[in-house]
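Could someone model magnesium ion with this protein?
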Amino acid sequence: MPAVREHVDKAPTRQDKADKPLSAPQKAMRRLGLDSDMDLALHLPLRYEDETRLMAIAELRDGDLAQVEGVVRDNRVEVRARRQLIVRIEDEAGHTLLLRFLNFYPSQQKLLAVGQRVRVRGEVRGGFLGREMVHPECKAVQAGAPLAQALTPVYPTTAGLPQAYLRKAVGRALDKLVLDETLPPQALQSWPGGPQVLADWPLHAALDYLHHPGPEVSLAALQDRSHPAWLRLKAEELLAQQLSQLQARQAQAQRRAPALRIRPGPDDQGLHERLLAVLPFALTAAQRRVSEEIAQDLARPSPMHRLLQGDVGSGKTVVAALAAAVCIDAGYQCVLMAPTEILASQHVKKLVDWLTPLGVRVAWLAGGQKTKERRETLEAIARAPEQGGAQLIVGTHAVIQDKVHFHKLGLAIVDEQHRFGVAQRLALREKVRSDQGANSDGSGGEDGEEPHMLMMSATPIPRTLAMSYYADLDVSTLDELPPGRSPIVTRVISEQRRPELIERIRAQLAEGRQVYWVCPLIEESEAVDLTNATATHAELTAALNHGQPASPRGGEGGIQVGLLHSRLPPPEKQAVMAEFVAGRMGLLVSTTVIEVGVDVPNATLMVIEHAERFGLSQLHQLRGRVGRGAQASACVLLYSTGDAPRLGQTARERLKAMAETNDGFEIARRDLEIRGPGEFLGARQSGAALLRFADLATDGVVLDWARQTAALMLARYPALAERHVARWLGGRVDYLKA
Ligand code: ADP
Ligand code: MG
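Reply:
Sure, complex below.
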């Protein structure tokens, strides 16, 4: 039987209807993204106004938000400090209330004519002349006119879109929408709050209620979103998200990728085995486990889509190198993309150190390369590995530019993937897919094959977030640090103790250790950042060298103090980094360009100035630069309250979290608590695709239900599943897959 297609939830958009120009409120609705009836139905009130009862004027108290009915006894325009309309109304009991309008129209004067019966709503103030309301809402009524039966919704709106217009539009949309049940009976039954909850609140009833709750409603239950109508919405929203991600995963399994297998040892030793043999350390158990997970994925003929998460310093690079080795050994190319040049070049260095002695050809691709060098690199990337082409390509997002054509890409690795925007990640996936099999000479990967993808992140994603936003990803976790690291002690101290701190730095340097000093982050202006960093550099150089002048690479003889900031040309940056890495530079002053991933085990102290201005995960990542060797390490968070008497609440929570734990997962959990998932995810979920109703910090139980229900529906009720996703996500599904 053909599917019945009458119940189309998405009404035609206003644009389809006619080519009539849009009115101002219609344009404003567009701007708010309110195109379909479903969009309007999901545009929930910010709050409600209670027009369901009247108060007697005698009962009114200062600050009450009240509705009063009375007859106008007096109406005149007075000029006091300025021209104003003053109206006096009297209620049944004979008490009077003043209404005052500083701006008014003739129409208002007419509405408030003497003898007219009106209902007015507003905030009560004890004015000079007795109780009054300033600019109340007024409407004319007949005696005994019925009161509203439900609370009146107040919607989020924008310029040019009056509440009344929006209320009507939402009301019409709700009337028109036909929202038949998309949840199968088992799904209703299995709801953790009891089998009747969702059944009693079908979607349409829930929406009607949230727009127009009865006067008896517990406003608290609406506020904290625990009312069953809210639960229905959250359940449906999370279900839609889980369904779309499961669909993405199923689609993924249908696609083809080269099966890349580890060549066995010991006689005919593969690259993977040879790399293991030359590493200067033994893998941790966690590294062995995740490498095994990755190897199993690579050996399958469908593309891997795996997230490798591990705290800063957990050793992700070597895991990436081992995966690359498997890929290269199988005759395919591997690309590694890093968010910044410093980070990318560090990778090259490490990978080059490990892999070139084993005969692997590594190519480097970044923004600032010379034309000739770049052309040669591009040629090497486009050439077959067996004919001398590049086998491992490392670079910044330069690797996803149009001019780059991989000959035969088997594996794409994205380091610090959370630092790339959605658009860049989508671009990489599109790029690596479309390049495959597109070689004109018919060489390259087989038709329709696409590369495997490994994403790495140092910001561990809390479980609920991983389940909801990354449900189409497999996740491997490095939950163990390499041995011999001593824990980092973190202290939060006031800016006033700076002199003490400088003594401490001197002591560290005297012991041959190295120190990072991170300068304040000033969002508005890079120029101010720079001035600050330069001044700090001069100050510290002078303090540590007893007054000798500062140079960016440090002075001769004395203690070298380096300066690193974003305005330095890349070669200069790398020269400064090289001095620090080589241990010739004792102190490195830097704006936040000391990137995640920089690795100097001899650095044992990190000072972060104005730590109160940094985000929690950023602080944690910066701190991860120390504690990489066997020496005891410390991180000092310097804060300044500026002119304020105390630190703000969230800043205090962040610094406290830093002092209390070194565990990246715990930090991520607290970060989620402090910031909420929208900010936490950053660019991954831009606008539309973010959850609007469910809150991952509190709705873990709903998420579990949604996950199970999504699996059930895809297996047994595919038509319902499809309807559900279309209703909730419309055309927005793509972004969820980035
Ligand atoms: P991240 O996960 O932050 O990218 P890295 O890959 O940069 O961490 O590794 C941090 C440091 O630990 C590097 O110096 C690396 O060589 C070292 N390392 C990695 N794995 C081990 C191990 N199993 N034993 C000892 N040191 C290791
Ligand atoms: Mg790293």
